[in-house]
Amino acid sequence: QLSNQPTNQSTNQLVSDVAVPIVVYRGNVTSVVVSGLEPNKLYHMKLRYSGSRSNSLLSRSLRIMTPPLPPVNPTIVDLGPTNVRIKWYPPKFGAYKFIVQMKTGDEKVWSNVFNSQETLYISTTLSPDTAYAVRVLSVNYQGATSDPSNTISIVTSNRNNNDKDYKHVSKVDSTFTIECTNDLSIGDTILITERLYGKIINVSKSSSKESNSEYLGERTIAAHIVKDNYKTVRDTCLATDRPINSISSSNYRIVWLEVIWVQSKLNAEQFKYKTGEIIERKLKNLQEFEIYRCLWYQEKQRMRLEDEWELLHDCYLQYDC
Question: Signal sequence span per UniProt (predicted)?
Fold first, then answer.
C-alpha cells in the first residue's frame, strides 16, 4: 500500500488524517516498480502478506520522497571581470533547497559552490577572461537531488572592464529605466528614494521637551536586492486567506538591500551608508516613492514577481521524514 503525505501549507505541519492509501501491487515477486508519482512528494509504503484465508498486519512504513524537478531558467543577472550574479526559478511541485555547480572550460569535474534555500548565487572570486559553465540542482527535504538544469556558459570580462553604469550617480537616468514599484524581485538592482525626519530635543534646567518631527532631507539609494522574507509572507497570507501577490503582501514583505551608493540632500548627508552595507526595508515604506531598476544581463529571462511566487508556493515545506 502507498499513501502520499501532504502538509498544511499555512503551518508546514503534517496533515496525516487526509492521506489516502492505494494498493499499487499484488503478486508473488519481491520487487515492484511504482510509476505515476509526483516529484518532491513524500510517500509512505507498507507491505502485507496476503494468504488464501488470512492477511498479515501491515509492515512498518517505508518513507520515500521523490526527487524534485530541475530548476527553471538559470539566468545571468550581472557579470563582471571577477563577479557574477545568477538567478534561477523553482520547478513545478517545488524543492527544499538548491545546489549550484560550476567548472571552468577545461575542467571535467563539477564543483559545488552554493547550497542554500536562496535562488540567487553571488560570486566575487572569479578569474578575469575565463570561461565557466554553471548549472543548478534542486534538492528535496530528504536530500535527494534532481537532474541538473540546463547549463549556462559565462565568460568574465577583462580586469580593466569593471566600470558598471549603475555605480555612477551621473548615469542614473540612462541606467535605472524600468519602473518596478510592484515588481521587486531578488536579484534586481534598484533605485529608491527616502525622506528623512528627525526629532529635536530642547533641554532646559527645569525640563526637557521633545518637538515635532523635522524634515531633514532626502536620500537616494542604489542597491542590489539580495534577500526577502517570502516564506513569512506566504504563511501569513495563507493564514489570513489573502492572495499571495505584491499588493496584498506589502505590509508583510521585507527586503534586504546591498548598498551601491547613496546621494543625500539637505541635512540627510550625515545618514549615509557605506558601499556593500546590508540594509533592511519594509516594502510598504519603499513604495511611498516610485522605484526603478536596471536591465538584467539576460533581461528576457526575468520573470515577474507574481510568476516567481507561484513557483515558490510549494518550496521549503518540511516533512516528517
Answer: none
